[in-house]
Amino acid sequence: MPSSQRLDATDARLLRAMARLPRATAVALADLLGLSRNTVQARLARLEQGDALRSVEHRVDPAALGYPLTAFVTTQVTQRRLDEVAGELAVIPEVLQVQGLSGQNDLLVQVVATDADDLYRVAGEILAIPGVERTNTALVMRELLPYRLTPLLDRGAGAVRSSAE
């Protein structure tokens, strides 16, 4: 469920600093932003509790784990089984992310695979889930723009910027 929590400019500056310096401590962030350590810790706690700050895991390139192929599988699902299907998708390790869609397809499933045969196997596992009616697989040929939030954080932080933030 998306967060309804609105972030102010200080929150955006804090998140931007964390994105640029992911190993920074609360003390280092406070020094960098000119805030007290208690302010930084309180804001981080509020962001985590409100679901605005999600997992802090580092983004690992799946290719480094032996999964150089990425694909998107659009999936049509029996509507009353949508939650079941999502639960079954969560069990497949190669499924990285699942988005619910409006329109003709119900789900957009991002998957990784070791090679074409492995992708065929993963797509088959998805199709075999009870409630999945139809799938269509599109292989990612090249990533042109990686997932990013920094431009939004920059906008949210307003005009006050320093090169370190």
Brief sketch in words of this structure:
Helix content is 38%, strand content 18%. The protein is α+β, with helices and mostly antiparallel strands and 165 residues long.
Let me know the largest β-sheet. Answer: 4 strands, antiparallel
Give the overall pLDDT as a whole number. Answer: 89
Number of DSSP strand runs: 4
| Element-level helix/strand string | HHHEHEEHEH
Main sheet: strand order: 2-3-1-4
What is the overall silhouette?
Answer: elongated
Radius of gyration: 20 Å
**Number of DSSP helices?**
6
Proportion of beta-strand residues: 15-25%
Residue stretches low in confidence (pLDDT < 50, at least 5 long) are 159-165
Q: End-to-end span in angstroms?
A: 29 Å
Binned, the helix content reads 25-40%
Q: Could you say which structural class the secondary elements and strand pairing correspond to?
A: alpha+beta
Structure, explained:
This protein has helices at 9-20, 26-33, 37-49, 82-91, 116-127, 150-157; strands at 69-77, 95-100, 107-113, 132-139. Helix 2 packs across helix 3 (37-49). Strands 2-3-1-4 form a four-stranded antiparallel beta sheet. The model is unreliable at 159-165 (pLDDT under 50). A hairpin with a 6-residue loop joins strand 2 (95-100) and strand 3. The protein is α+β, with helices and mostly antiparallel strands and 165 residues long.
